[in-house]
Amino acid sequence: MACVCEMIGLACLVALFMSFSNKAPYQLKMAIFLIGNGIIVLICIPFMILRPRDYRNAFAPAWGCRQLCKALGVTMELRGLENIRKDHGSVVLMNHQSALDLCVLAYLWPVIGRATVVSKKEVLYLPFFGFGSWLWGTLFINRSRKTDSINALQKESKAINERNCKLLLFPEGTRNSKETLLPFKKGSFHIALQSQCPIQPVVISKYWFLNGDKKIFRPGHAIIHILPEIPTAGSKKEDMDAVIEKTYNIMQSEYTKLSQEAKALNTKKHV
């Protein structure tokens, strides 16, 4: 255990050193973040393997990820805990910006309930992290084979009601760091309507401190807001477009508001 703590501590010390320099290369900081999380998962695998496919396996890696983010100078504020209902399952929808969203999941995982993430199959083949993700119950889908993806998601939709699962998805389908959300894809809404479970929007403010195009990775602050559930009980397939529009408008409005608040906080931080 002492060795484990030393390795995590060393990774955090390196990240902390890098966080003090705004000129530190973007690629190096991202490498520290990604490799650091891989090491954290590797350390936890011997313990996780004792209860495979259990969402609780992610608690320790999530803690490590949060510490690594803080060491890199990235802090996140979690709001809306009062909106979480653990007595039933739901489809949790989040906006997707970058690999740093892994830190968002690390903040959500201990509080959201019996969580399962839906991820592209390629993540399964990442060293250490892919196997760790499988151990904590990530649902991997093959985007190139639509039938397989639909079957896997339909199977998981049953678990939403049977085991009160929280299925976490990114409805935009790809990373987007602009100030306007991308149009939502229908897959997650198919699951919500099929299982008649509520939709729980989770909005993350824009990462003003991170810019992949300009290769900028500064210390900064982001806000995560868990919004009230949107009921789908009684809604049918023909109501899907209306449900999508309602969800999109709610999330876009909150994204704009949170992003402006975060922009002011990050600007003040770097003055």
Draw up the topology in text.
Blueprint (H helix, E strand, L loop, with lengths): L1 H18 L6 H23 L10 H13 L2 E6 L10 E5 L6 H12 L1 E7 L8 H7 L3 E3 L4 H17 L2 E5 L17 H9 L3 E6 L5 E2 L4 E2 L2 E7 L13 H31 L1
Parallel strand pairs: 1-9, 2-5, 2-6, 3-4, 3-5
Antiparallel strand pairs: 6-9, 7-8
Helix pairs in contact: 1-2, 1-3, 2-3, 2-5, 3-4, 6-7
Q: Proportion of β residues?
A: 15-25%
Shape field: globular
Q: What distance lies between the first and last C-alpha atoms, to the nearest angstrom?
A: 41 Å
- Total strands: 9
Spatial ordering of strands, largest sheet: 1-9-6-2-5-3-4
Report the structural category. Answer: alpha/beta
Q: Helix proportion of residues, in percent?
A: 40-55%
Gyration radius, in Å: 18 Å
Could you describe the 3D structure shown?
The chain is α/β, with parallel strands linked by helices and 271 residues long. Helix content is 48%, strand content 16%. It contains eight helices and nine strands. The strands form two sheets. Strands 1-9-6-2-5-3-4 form a seven-stranded mixed beta sheet, with helices on both faces. A two-stranded antiparallel ribbon has the order 7-8. Helix 5 links the parallel strand 3 and strand 4. The model has no long low-confidence stretch (mean pLDDT 90).
Put the structure in a nutshell.
By secondary structure, the protein is α/β, with parallel strands linked by helices. 48% of the residues lie in helices and 16% in strands. The protein has helices at residues 2-19, 26-48, 59-71, 101-112, 129-135, 146-162, 187-195, 240-270; strands at residues 74-79, 90-94, 114-120, 139-141, 165-169, 199-204, 210-211, 216-217, 220-226.
